[in-house]
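Researcher: Let's walk through a ligand-bound prediction step by step. First, I give you the protein sequence. Second, the SMILES string for pyridoxal-5'-phosphate. Third, you return the three-dimensional complex as structure tokens. Ready?
Model: Ready.
Researcher: Here are steps one and two:
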Amino acid sequence: MPFQNTLSFARELDRIDPLQKFRDRFYFPQLNGKNVIYFTGNSLGLQPKNAKDFVDEVMEDWKNLAVEGHFHSKKPWWDYHERLAKPLAKIIGAKPGEVSVMNTLTVNLHLLMVSFYRPSKKRYKILCEEKAFPSDQYMLQSQVRFHGFDPKDAIVEVAKRPGQHHWHTNDIIEKINELGDELALVMLGGVNYYNGQVFDMKAITGAGKSVDAMVGWDLAHAAGNIELKLHDWNCDFAAWCSYKYMNSGPGNASGIFIHEKHLGQDNIPRFEGWWGTSKETRFLMKQEFEPIATADAWQLSNPPVLALAPYLASLELFEEVGMEALIEKREKIVSYLEFILHEIDSEVDSSFEIITPAERGCQLSVLLHGEGRSLFEYLMANGVITDWREPNVIRLAPAPFYCSFEDMYNFGQVLKRGILGRT
Ligand SMILES: Cc1ncc(COP(=O)(O)O)c(C=O)c1O
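Model: Step three, the predicted complex:
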């Protein structure tokens, strides 16, 4: 059915939306007693209403049981993290044993590089996208330096074509083939944080493996957003944060994926700690490390239970709704937002350019030609929570879990007023 830029049409889309009921399962910031229009689920997801109960349960158990809570609380703390592996495996397309939850994203990428970036004199190069998320750039540079190489030589960035805002898969694959046996690692973001592009992870992983490189993914903007089949695609490793589309809370724990072909190996280089050693013998306090046969072997410390509690709460919602339904709504709501942007563009003098290519998830990155930061500030002051990236890009990510079609319509109206009525 062709879209219409009317309130009644948007409300009709909400009425027939099978996910509409989930909106009420999240807390929205308020402005003048009304929910804001929340476009920054790609940065920090909203708080699920069940999160507090999960945290309160841990607080109560701690109050009443103290140390006994490790083994005797309702959800014992010593293996609390294991509850997250199964639902996460479904979200990222993995086997539960290939998933663990620990630390934070950049920390985990470093730990995974210890295992999967093992440069030699000949094979030491890393391929990534140009202007990758800064933390990834710092992580890669410091890893390369740590191994005695020069980042300028060892890190090869794939550029966008002149005048274009997105990457071409062919350019990435050509570069992989060109580097061939010099290439130690392919490491990209599954969804680029700036332009929202979804990379062809299957094709890029296949190309990396065909030259015997390791292939790892930063899935910060992909987990809980797009369809992932990490196991089937034969990715070597991946990590993601949980506070964006996964709604687990600020700065919360990261997940890791390690393909099962790398599990259960005695000689894999890895930084180790007591939570990675066999559960059966851990408390014998032995000197020898006996790696757990799953990705949990990479765990160093006992789980941060208070952090994992809201993450588990959020995963309960993911279990209830399922990625398939989220993706179906995501496609519709993002298309509706795109339509609204074009409609408003035709009504005002400015011009918007959506720099996100057709391969996209939740996020549309919009270049505001002729508009400055003051438009962004107007949006924020008028109940549209979005973000600004220099020089003049706003990122709009209507998370399908809780955003409504009416939000998209209302956003268009605020945007129009902002452009026409701002002084
Ligand atoms: C693509 C990407 N990589 C890495 C990070 C860093 O995450 P953390 O601060 O949890 O290490 C972020 C954070 O937003 C990100 O978006």
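Researcher: And what stands out?
Model: Residues 104-106, 133, 135-136, 189, 193, 218, 220-221, 241 surround pyridoxal-5'-phosphate (CB under 6 Å). The first strand starts at residue 26 and ends at 27.
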